[in-house]
Amino acid sequence: MTTHAIEPAAILDRIAFDAHGLAPAIAQQHDTGEVLMLAWMNRDAVAETLATGRVCYFSRSRNALWRKGETSGQAQRLVELRMDCDGDALLVLVDQTGVACHTGRRDCFYRAATADGWREIAAPLIAPQTLYHR
Amino acid sequence: MTTHAIEPAAILDRIAFDAHGLAPAIAQQHDTGEVLMLAWMNRDAVAETLATGRVCYFSRSRNALWRKGETSGQAQRLVELRMDCDGDALLVLVDQTGVACHTGRRDCFYRAATADGWREIAAPLIAPQTLYHR
Prior knowledge:
2 copies of one chain form a homodimer.
Chain A: H1 8-12, E1 23-29, E2 35-41, H2 43-52, E3 56-59, E4 64-67, E5 76-83, E6 90-96, E7 111-114, E8 117-120, H3 128-132
Parallel strand pairs in A: 1-6
Antiparallel strand pairs in A: 1-2, 3-4, 5-6, 7-8
């Protein structure tokens, strides 16, 4: 017997992870629709996210599970996990505590293409050193 | 002299395409916030999108540029192109004509994880055969 709210295998076996065992995961704030970030999940990250209700990614740079907010405190509560038509991309509806971006901005997509190149369209809400050196 | 509204090199040179020359691109409806789909862009796809104002992806299955809507008529007008903090993911704000998904649904993320497995949460708005056999 499992105490998980969601039966993992029925979910996990349908996701078409890539050759590295990963799928891109878009985090979207569930109520405002803000696209917060794009990260990656492996099978274990999806399983842990479903089991705990707290969003867990796979960090390609650290080659390890990345429990969002573990260091920064800026966690994401899972609201709903969705999968696309090809089964190879995930949309994670979340409730974001504070800011999603390691730069201290609400979301990671703070640069817009303009005639003069990339332009920053959002400022940090929290100083990054506050996030990582508490 | 270029007649492009946006100087491509200043944009393109800052994108951190992966080992395959690709970056994931999230298409979001600019006014409603709907996440429509996740696809991929290479340098040429970004350049064409900026030059034409019509969103162009790179199809990994066909290994060719994919001018969204060319076959189906369900095109995406570019509203704004954004890049994330690491420069390796793109957010494309678009105005979607009709439906984004090849299944005839408005967006591709029509399956939600539930205790009983994946559940379809949206029905096709257009029959797929109408999209591709006109």
